[in-house]
Automatic annotation (TrEMBL):
Coiled coil: none annotated. Its EC number is 5.1.3.2. Keywords: Carbohydrate metabolism, Galactose metabolism, Isomerase, NAD. InterPro entries: Epimerase_deHydtase (IPR001509), NAD(P)-bd_dom_sf (IPR036291), UDP_G4E (IPR005886). Belongs to the NAD(P)-dependent epimerase/dehydratase family. Its cofactor is NAD(+). One of its GO terms (molecular function) is UDP-glucose 4-epimerase activity. This is UDP-glucose 4-epimerase. NCBIfam families: galE.
Length: 340
C-alpha cells in the first residue's frame, strides 16, 4: 500500500517524502513541477502532473494501491494571490476538489492537508488556538480555509477522514544535506537574509519597523521543516490506525521579530550585510504565534529543533553548500550526491 504525496517536489513536500522513506513507506508523488524540483524528490514514483487533471489522477489511483494522501500542492504566494485570485481558487480549491473526487471514487479515506496560519488573518489573541476566529486577509488564506471547510463536509457525507496542519513559519533544511529551500522567486525572510549574507542580493529589507512589538518589527513563530515533516508522519499514522479527524497548529509557541531573525543570520553566518527599513508589507499581521498544545497532546508531536539559531544554522548549511539551489547546471552534483 502506498502513500500519495501531492506536491512532493516542493520545499516541505520533499522533506515529507524524505521522512516517509526513513519510515520505509511506499511513496507515489504527483507534482506539476511549477515550483517543485525533480532533484528534491529522494525516492518513490514520480508523476509530473496537475491535480486538476482528472484523467491523470484516475490513472494514478488505478496504477497504485493508495491507502492515504498527503496533500501539500498549492499556489502559496500571498502577494500573487491578491492579483490572481481566480488562479488561486483554481489551483488550490478546484485541485483539491478533483483530488477528493478521485479519493471518493477509489475508496481512499485518509488525507493529511497542509493549511496555514493565514486562515486566522489578524489573530484575536496570542498564542493562537485552533478554534480562534478565522478571517483571512488574503486570497491564499481564504482558499485554504475553503478547503478546510470542504474537508469537513466531505467527511460527513463520504467518511473521508482528515488531519489539517496549519503551518506557521517553516524554516531550515534536512540534516542529510541533500534537500532544502529553493523558491523562485524567494519571498521568505530567512533565505532572503542568507542570500544577502552570500552577496546574492544587495540587502535585506525589514517590512515595517513601526508595529507595536518590542522592536517595531513583525513577530513570527518559526518551526523546523524536519519537525514539520515528522508531524505529517504522525498524522498519517494516526489516520491509518483509526484516529479521528483533527485540525492542528504547527508552530513552536515562541515568536521572534524580523530584526532578531536578521541578527541571528548575521551571527550564524559570521557575515555582515546591509539592512534597510522599508514600508509595511500589505496583509502582514503584527504577531503570529501558535499554541501547538493540541498536536502535542493528541498526536504526540514533540519538536526537536525549536531553537532559532539551530534553524538558521540548518538553512545556512543548505544555502552555503547549494548557493544555486537545485538550479539547472547542478545535475552532475545531484547525481553524485544522491548516489553517495
Ligand atoms: N519580511 C521582511 N523582509 C523580507 C521578507 C519578509 O521584513 O524581505 C518579514 C515579513 O513582513 C514577515 C516576516 O518577515 O513579518 C516573515 O515573512 P515571510 O515572508 O518569511 O513569512 P510569512 O510570515 O509571510 O509567512
Amino acid at each position: 500500500m502506498a502513500i500519495l504525496v501531492c506536491g512532493g517536489a516542493g520545499y516541505i513536500g520533499s522533506h515529507v517524502v524524505a521522512a516517509l522513506i526513513e519510515q520505509h513507506e511506499e511513496i507515489v508523488v504527483i507534482d506539476r513541477m511549477a515550483v517543485g524540483r525533480q532533484y528534491a524528490v529522494l525516492g518513490g514514483k514520480l508523476y509530473n502532473g496537475d491535480l486538476n487533471d482528472r484523467v491523470m489522477l484516475d490513472k494514478i489511483f488505478k496504477e497504485n494501491e493508495i491507502e492515504a494522501v498527503i496533500h501539500l500542492s498549492a499556489s502559496s504566494l500571498v502577494g500573487e494571490s491578491m492579483t490572481q485570485p481566480l488562479e488561486y481558487y483554481r489551483n488550490n480549491v478546484e485541485g483539491t476538489l478533483r483530488l477528493l473526487e478521485a479519493m471518493h471514487k477509489h475508496c481512499v479515506d485518509n488525507i493529511v492537508f497542509s493549511s496555514t496560519a493565514a486562515v486566522y488573518g489578524d489573530p484575536e489573541r496570542i498564542p493562537i488556538r485552533e478554534d480562534d476566529r478565522k478571517i483571512p486577509r488574503n486570497t491564499y488564506g481564504e482558499t485554504k480555509l475553503a478547503i478546510e471547510r470542504m474537508l469537513h463536509w466531505v467527511e460527513q457525507a463520504h467518511g473521508i477522514k482528515y488531519v489539517i496542519l496549519r503551518y506557521f513559519n517553516v524554516a531550515g533544511a534536512h540534516d542529510n544535506g541533500l534537500i532544502g529551500e529553493d523558491h523562485d522567486p524567494e519571498t521568505h525572510l530567512i533565505p532572503l537574509a542568507i542570500q544577502a549574507a552570500l552577496g546574492q542580493r544587495e540587502n535585506i529589507m525589514i517590512f515595517g519597523d513601526d508595529y507595536s512589538t518590542k522592536d517595531g518589527s513583525c513577530i513570527r513563530d518559526y518551526v523546523h521543516v524536519m519537525d514539520v515533516a515528522e508531524a505529517h508522519l504522525l498524522a498519517v499514522n494516526s489516520l491509518r490506525n483509526g484516529g479521528r479527524s483533527g485540525v492542528y497548529n504547527l508552530g513552536n509557541s515562541e515568536g521572534f521579530t524580523v530584526k532578531e531573525v536578521i541578527e541571528t543570520v548575521k551571527k550564524v553566518t559570521g557575515l555582515a550585510f546591509p539592512v534597510q527599513i522599508a514600508s509595511r508589507r500589505q496583509g502582514d499581521p503584527a504577531v503570529l504565534i501558535a499554541s501547538p498544545e493540541l498536536i502535542k497532546d493528541e498526536l504526540n508531536w514533540s519538536p526537536k529543533r525549536s531553537s532559532l539559531e539551530k534553524m538558521v544554522a540548518s538553512a545556512w548549511e543548505w544555502h552555503r553548500t547549494h548557493p544555486n539551489g537545485y538550479a539547472k547546471g547542478n545535475e552532475e552534483t545531484w547525481q553524485k550526491e544522491s548516489q553517495s
